[in-house]
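question for whoever is on the cluster today: can someone run the full assembly for these? two chains, 228 residues total. i dont have access anymore since they changed the login thing
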Amino acid sequence: DIHLTQSPSSLSASIGDRVTIACQASQGISQHLNWYQQKAGKAPNLLIYDVSNLEAGVPSRFSGSGSGTDFTFTISSLQPEDVATYYCQQYDNLPLTFGGGTKVEIK
Amino acid sequence: QVQLQESGPGLVKPSETLSLTCTVSGGPLSSNYWNWIRQSQGKGLEWIGYINYSGNTIQNPSLKSRVTLSIDTSKNQFYLKLTSVTAADTAIYFCARESGYIGSNGRFDYWGQGALVTVSS
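^ ran it for u. tokens below:
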């Protein structure tokens, strides 16, 4: 199985801050990586697919980059509604796997 | 707007079978791939497997011997059965749609709200 390691596991930032989350794969996964946002008590919501493509309706302050084994998710200007846990997910190999999540809070 | 809704018992006894239904509205099951994913405190998000409209399935090898996936396109429903459950199977179970129409693309664009299943005697 491909293991995805996210860091940090949690962070606290101020409104307007730039927030960056890393996701490292245990082996190369090309561009086969998605990012999800999960708010408390809700299902995950797809934000970014294929590393850097924004899902329809997702604000442009969210972005993603990377390739191979190292990927980054960025919120350019943190907003109150961005409080959530964020997950990366690979689909290069079965079984599909998710990272452990990064909990984002407001300072 | 596609919507998914999980249903089934919230409490299952150890060694028994967990059975869940996912009802899809707003679109046919005759396309896309349909998945089950669970979330527990101990293991985070874990992909269980998928089924397509033809009934072809792929399961996570970690669960494969205990998982049965099935589909009824006439009812717009697909199903999960997990046998011989233990406390480790206590989780929120989500059904989710993959966005691809031709084949599996690993991109979950619609999710159910989730169903909490507790395994306890």
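summary bc i know u wont read the tokens: The mean pLDDT of chain A is 97. Chain A touches chain B through 23 residues (CB under 8 Å).
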